[in-house]
Predict the structure.
Amino acid sequence: MSEPSLYSRLLGPAFEDLPSALKSIHDARRSKRYVGRCDIRGGGPIARTIARLAGLPVARADAPIEVTVNVTATGEHWLRKFGSQRMQSRLTWRKQRMEERLGPIVLAFELSAQQERIIWSLYSARLALLPVPLTWLLKCGATESLDQGRYGFDVSAHVLGIGLVVHYKGWLVEHE
């Protein structure tokens, strides 16, 4: 029997009740590749600087997306390609939460499975080793759900006084 996946450990028994498209992208297989489409919105000049620092995608409509997930003993490496632009992050389990590292930014999320979806709720944030007060962040989170039977995602981040940093939404299917 293989080790449980990062998501199944975080979500517990609720993981088994998720739709197969969500369980598949978050299972314990060592390597997975997905392709799809998404729409990306961004904010103003300061927001674009923050997005660039975190390696977030630039605004564009109906962008092709390719996602490669590599599972290791300590976490998951996600490589997202929005056309030719690359966005990398590392997901790990830390203190019963999902921690995502995007360049020098580290975000900790509480995950929950609700009504056939996974909800990411921001718990804490750091810039390198410095804590970022959550009062600076109006909204930062994600939802994973079904999109016409496919894996769907909706990710957004807003910063107080700056507004929208990034919002990307789309779907993926496994690429054999």
Q: What stands out?
A: The chain has one domain: 6-174. The longest strand covers residues 31-42.
